[in-house]
Automatic annotation (TrEMBL):
Keywords in alphabetical order: Hydrolase, Metal-binding, Zinc
Cofactor(s) required for function per UniProt: Zn(2+)
Positions bound to substrate: 74-80
Any single Pfam family the record assigns to this protein: dCMP_cyt_deam_1
Leading EC class: hydrolase
Binding of Zn(2+), residues: 85, 118, 121
One BP term from GO: pyrimidine-containing compound metabolic process
Name under which the protein is recorded: Cytidine deaminase
Active site, renumbered: 87 (proton donor)
Domain of life: Bacteria
MF GO annotations: cytidine deaminase activity; zinc ion binding
Length: 173
């Protein structure tokens, strides 16, 4: 895939700049060039946002474990509660273009600065996360397990329903 993977540490990024990748990160960490590419793609997506109500435009971009890049923007609605966050568009593109696991994720606001995914989007993203997924948060790079600790998963459902341990992919038609 384009954009060499390298080891790095979480928490070393800074707002506005490509998050730095240090020394003790998961194997899925990507290099500074890929983080910059994701930031640019997120900013391009943000320019497409439909946000006539909040005027808060959001763009998101991610690297998939097969090297694909996916992105999305927020799409608001007169029914405020049915607004689609940028992350929802990104995950929709992920699934539509073949699925896979999200390795690295960037979300930016209208000023192109790192934006924190809302709680619902953390859950949405985590369903498709590589175990070592890193997110460029306003405070720096953060692993998915810190972004949404003890998340609700299919295992929690199966524990109660007794359903066989199928993978989510196995449920696809
Ligand atoms: O993680 C988030 C949080 C908010 N928004 C959007 C929804 C709404 O259009 C605007 C203000 O909440 O920002 C996103 O796209 N992603």
């Amino acid at each position: 895939m384009s954009g060499a993977k390298s080891c790095g540490s979480a928490g070393s990024g800074s707002a506005g700049a490509a998050p730095a990748v240090g020394t003790a990160a998961p194997a899925s960490a990507v290099d500074a060039g890929m983080w910059e590419r994701l930031r640019e793609l997120a900013a391009q997506a943000m320019e497409r946002a439909y946000a006539p109500y909040s005027h808060f435009r959001v763009g998101a971009a991610a690297l998939v474990d097969d090297g694909r890049l996916v992105s999305g923007c927020n799409v608001e609605n007169a029914g405020y509660g049915v607004t689609l966050c940028a992350e929802c568009g990104l995950v929709s593109e992920l699934v539509r273009t073949g699925g896979g696991r999200l390795v690295a994720f960037v979300c930016v606001d209208g000023a192109g600065q790192p934006c924190s995914p809302c709680g619902r989007c953390r859950q949405v993203l985590s369903e498709h996360a590589h175990p070592d997924m890193l997110l460029a948060m306003p405070s720096g790079l953060m692993p998915i397990d810190e972004v949404i600790p003890d998340r609700f998963t299919k295992a929690d459902i199966d524990r109660v329903t007794g359903a066989p341990g199928q993978s989510p992919e196995g449920d696809r038609p």
